Amino acid sequence: MPDIASVSRETSASLEATIETYFGITRLFGIGRLEAALLTLQTPDYYETLALDRAASEIAGARRSLTAAALRRHGGDDGDAAEAWADSRRAAVDRIARQIAALAGTGETSVARLTVAAGLLSDLPG
User: What angle do CA 48, 49, 54 make, to 5 degrees?
Assistant: First the structure.
């Protein structure tokens, strides 16, 4: 996974800590559900396909940024850096996780919903 290796180098965190934090961030926000929706949603329109590609890129970038932020702030702590980072901004994390679940968890996924979910992740301060 190039993202994980890149974040590990960027933060000087061990590969193991980076993997744990990367997947911790993924779990916190249900990013796997977003990625599954991105892969299964079929769009007949060229511009909707571009929007999906953009949403996928934005989600990946946000996950990298949030992983790096968690490692920078809590990577030296004992325990789970992703969870420690989430605890330090619990209200925002819970609000955005709920919104993402509502957008991607209903079975009515659309380009618009995925775009909004990507924006929510990107707007979350590290």
Answer: 95
Domain spans of the chain? Answer: 2-123
pLDDT, tens digit, 9 for 90 and up, residues 29-73: 999 999 999 998 888 999 999 999 999 999 999 999 999 999 999
- For the whole model, what pTM was predicted? 0.92
Give the whole-angstrom CA distance, residue 116 versus residue 7. 25
The residue type at 78: D
Q: Quote the CA–CA distance of 126 and 123 in Å, as a whole number.
A: 9
**Pairwise CA distance, residues 126 & 119, whole Å:** 14
pLDDT tens digits, 3-30: 899 999 999 999 999 999 999 999 999 9
The CA distances from residue 14 to 46, 89, 96, 102, 107, in Å, are 41, 24, 28, 34, 37
- Rounded to whole angstroms, the Cα distance separating 59 from 86 reads 17
Residue pair 66/25 in contact by the 8 Å Cβ criterion: yes
